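Handout, page 2. Input:
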Amino acid sequence: MAVYEADEDGRDTVRAKGGLWAPGLVNLALGVPAIVPLYLLWWLLTKYLPMDCRQVEDVVEPGVINCNYTTLDHAWVIMFLLAVTGLFMLALVLLVDVLLPRRRGRRTGVWLAAAVLIPVPFMVCLALA
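Output:
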């Protein structure tokens, strides 16, 4: 599907640079390295947050039934890695979806709208697992 816009004079319509395929494919490709921070976020939401305890000392308290020492032990590493890989992915998305299209004279709205496709590879992996 071709995208058309007005030229500089505003009289004629010309085909816009790029199209819809390039932003979609590039954002799907960005989704492959985004699997790492998305998985770390999924781990925190499904393993760490539902627990009844937040410290190692809470493991021995009576009445605490949903507390796993291994999850508590790994939580700080997961949070650190999520921060590092999440910031890296945000910088990559900013570069690919905002800065490069502006530099090449393309519309950033189409690129940012295609950013919705970034979690698709993670969802596919999650569905297949």
